What does this fold into?
Amino acid sequence: MKKLTIDEGSFRDPDARVAYLNNSVYRIVYPNGFKKFDFIKRILKNKSIAEYLIDTEEVSQQEVELLELDIDTNVKVFKHKKIDYISYPYEWSFYRLKDAALHHLNLHISLLKNNATLIDAYSYNVQFNNYSPIFIDLMSIKEYSEGEFWTGHKQFCESFLNPLVLKSKLGINYNNWFKGNLEGIDTGELSKLLKFRHMFSWNIFYNILLLNYFEKKYKKNEDLKITKNKKLKKSYYLSILTNLVNFIESLKPKKETSVWGEYSRDNTYNDEEKKNKYEFISNYFNKNKSNRVLDLGCNNGEYSKLAIQSGCKSVVGLDYDLNAIDEAYWISKKERLNFLPLYFDVSNPSSDIGWHQKERKGFMKRLNFDFVLALAFEHHLAIAKNIPLEDVINWITSLAPKGIIEFVPKNDVTIQSMIKLKGDIFPNYNLENFKNFLSKKTKITSEKIVSKSGRTLFSFEK
It folds into this structure.
């Protein structure tokens, strides 16, 4: 039996820590959190609230003893359903972040109506079971005290509202900005970008511009009299949350040209070539079932969907085209697919960030796949990014023990357009070298030419 492992990123909660054992997730609650623990147990019995929360049950004292905790004090323990793949808000497309924000607000409204509230409002507290948002940080729920303010207001704005406004009103992608700041998009920085016309939106004025104004006064110790001895009526508290729900529901991303968003409908394959590619992939998965597939350069999820239809249990798709990822998210929701498309730039991946670089795990720390799908992908690194072909192959094959890789030859129209400006500075980019590099790291189990230009699919295993 494996030993219980404490999540190093769960240190901020003084009442509890998250831990893992044998593919199960536990929340260990210390004596100072027992009152809240008992309150949450009662909350979990309320179906109107429980539907927003991760599936949770109390662990009996006999089971707690089996965990062999390295602590002397008495504890209580929750057991949560394990999320297949932990993702972060800076990896989410606009509509996924929007759904997470609405999920958080609707949970908070439901809690307030039942004399409970949330002590914080980080977007990290929401995760996704593929297309469905779920709230995971149960210890941020507490009993409501009449007249209390929304302590998580600033957190909600920075990690939910501000990124959505940045994209919707200004057309600026929030992902890399958010990735560089654990808390999200700073209200003061966003305020400097907003135009005069944006002030006519009550929600932007109240939740961004006014919030920034009071934050500045607080830093100068000028606003201490403003909130002293004042209380917030529950009805007004609810109206703030409800207004935000209505406002966020109305937000749409400012349209921009997609890099690869139309690739699945407008690419270099004719019908026969596409059929060849489909047959190779579906035949492989029909014979070799996979539990967790990683689809690199998933675009709108066309081949992720094929993998699922061919017997794979779930797929995590990665792409750096946000329009394509949003389309993939809509498809996963509409068709209820076990498919999680995320924003990802291979040359600038999600890294370990936060305190001691342990709060949010980088991409490589979250790997847990048994198959990698890399279709028409490697040339985007080897040609567009000037990454040595051998390095590309070594990286792809490190992600899972089995996979399918598509090699795109230099004479293909896609690569010809890539090297039009920079010239052909890739003398080592050819099929022979590709096969040699792949053979060094894996066993090639099958290969098939699927296009007139010589695009070739290879299946491999270690």
